[in-house]
Fold this protein.
Amino acid sequence: MARKPEPKQKNIGTTGHEWDGITELDTPMPRWWLWTFYLTIIWGIIYMILYPAIPLVKGATPGLLGYSSRGAVAEDIAAVSAKNAPLDAKIVSLDLAAIGSDPEVGTYANNGGAAVFRTFCIQCHGSGAEGAVGFPNLLDDDWLWGGDIESIYTTIKHGIRSEDDDDTRLSDMPAFGDDYLSDEEIASVAQYVLSLSGRATDETLVEDGSVVFADNCAACHGDDGKGLREMGAPNLTDSIWLYGGDLATVIETITYSRRGVMPAWSVDNKLSEAQIRQVAVYVHELGGGE
Amino acid sequence: MSTDTEETPPQLYAAREPIFPKRVKGKFRQLKWWLMIVTLGIYYITPWIRWDRGPGLPDQAVLIDMANRRFYFFWIEIWPYEFYFVAGLLIMAGLGLFLFTSALGRVWCGYACPQTIWTDLYILVERWIEGDRNARIRLHRQKWNLHKVRLRFTKWIVWLLIAVATGGAWVFYFADAPTLLVDLVTFKAPFVAYGFIAGLTATTFIFGGFMREQVCTYMCPWPRIQAAMMDEDTMTVVYREWRGEPRGKHRKAEGADKLGDCIDCNACVAVCPMGIDIRDGQQLECITCALCIDACDEMMVKVGKPTGLIAYITANDEPLERAGKPPRNMWKHLLRPRTIMYFTLWGAVGLGLLAALFLRADVQLNITPVRNPVYVTLSDGTIRNTYDIRILNKFQREETFLISVKSLDDDSEFDLELQGIDGHMIVVPADTTYSQRVYLNVSPDEPAATRDRTDVRIWIEAQTNGERASVDTVFNGDAP
Ligand code: SF4
Ligand code: SF4
């Protein structure tokens, strides 16, 4: 009498594998598993028809839904911009000085400004806004054209020495080496300039230099050498030097002049009004804003 | 009729054989009913427990607040950076499972796994509506008629209701339950809530109603992993074949005195939710639900034989029993290096978490020095370093903090400035993280101005109760 229950399927063999006398039954797979497998194939086919799938020489088959990840990103960006439009409108309508502390748009303006800055400004001013030789550091409290938000805004909007914008600002320091001053005069005025920050190396020339300075430089840099923002003339008495404050560099600057440039970001709508305001807020809050 | 003796080739795929577990009574079944009530109770009721935390904070005792990134558990509130608590709890759950598995085998599968609990519940419903095993087998074989349609339909409706309740309960853990319930029925709830409910309803309905043992045998990875934690001292459900065999029904027939204790009533097979015969030895399908023990014991009592023909025993007791010796003391099996080790680890993690929980501060300060550039020279020669600090105010009230700085290396005087704020007071709303940019300025004649690195400590002090937190950082000077 067969006591053991009937195996579910009589002729199940073993797989032929054997480990230490243990063999493995060759039990059939469950049928639903097979169906699941077929389902995945059907799913795959539908997916292939609907979405980009088969790679061809020039790109892949587009799929019926016309999906592309690039298109999806563009859609996302458009959606976000649409959502931000009212915020941007508010930024444009607000008084510049009120934007940064506005509870609704303040943080948005700052972060938007940071994004604009990282895209368009870091090439010259550095990723931390620390500047470089010839490109102002925006973290300190020394500003060629003014560090209040209005001035920063104007500078960004119209640029410096921009050829595309009639409202652009420019400083116009002559190259004193071209027939204006002799080498001796330049050497002495350079010593005088250094003496303004207490760093003259040859005290004997300072006296002569002060005369040269009064005749040639004081018009823009001021009698006391503290600069004049309307002219974009830097303060010569502080610790900050755009091109370097050592004697050789100062002589070079006097001899050949300096002509920094900055694009006018409003021209051709390179940046929108809202973006310009955002980045102005951002720069103003970097630490040196007035 | 064909006399073909050739074997048909083995099939590669086989349809599921339906299983009709019979009702059983006994101590294990009783225990399992209780476990079912407790676990399902916890699952369904927990989101509805209220816990007052004061104004502006959720009053749900257990809440995973994704939007605000908080996890509330009664009096405990976990912030995202404290996720190690969750990780720790998961590790404890893992080690706990290891411990139980090494001591009691697939006890998780047999008693506590949601798959087992919900399947049990579904079988209970099935039995209420369609009757016990024999009635269900009859119904299964019978052709479709109004009677069958009515029974099947009722059963599926009840199953579906349970499934919806199961999926529904899940989402209440992630939002205020009463509000969400109203939103759900008025179709104002977020789409993701409906998505989760639909998904979990489908899996509950399919896994509990139709897949059942197939989930355990073919889909779940846990049984295969469990095997690594079991050894000869692990308790498993075993048929004492040395006592039961040779089995036989006909107790009065000739040679009956040679028969073992198994009366071949098939009770153990009829109750098995996995559809196996424990008398064939240990099998990978067996979830050690112990229902066959209850079934067999009931029979043994009826025929006046000792119970325990099927029982929890360990592999290394088997040779002892075969040799007629008594099995070893159960504690000898339970207390062995493996279980002690799992328990120690489990306890260590638990103690660590408890300690961490009670040592948590209500205020925390993080700092990120802005290293790009490391310092800025201002026009008067002042050296400035910039830091972004984050204050975590875990008080459930708005708090004002006084911020101050001290050099750890010398007596350099630092001038601390807050971006956009006059003075040194920072107001942080209740239960929030607050970011603030801080400048440390040092005049050019202080030593720190010309030293490469100066260690500094930044303090914040809560103004209401004086609780302090500090963080150390570095000030970079303009080293020559
Ligand atoms: S095999 Fe998996 S699904 Fe089945 S009871 Fe065990 S843990 Fe649960
Ligand atoms: S053999 Fe026994 S313990 Fe194992 S699953 Fe079946 S009834 Fe449960």
Observations:
- Residues B 108-109, 113, 115-116, 215-216, 220, 222-223, 287 surround iron/sulfur cluster (ligand 1) (CB under 6 Å).
- Chain A has three domains: 14-60, 71-167+262-284, 183-256.
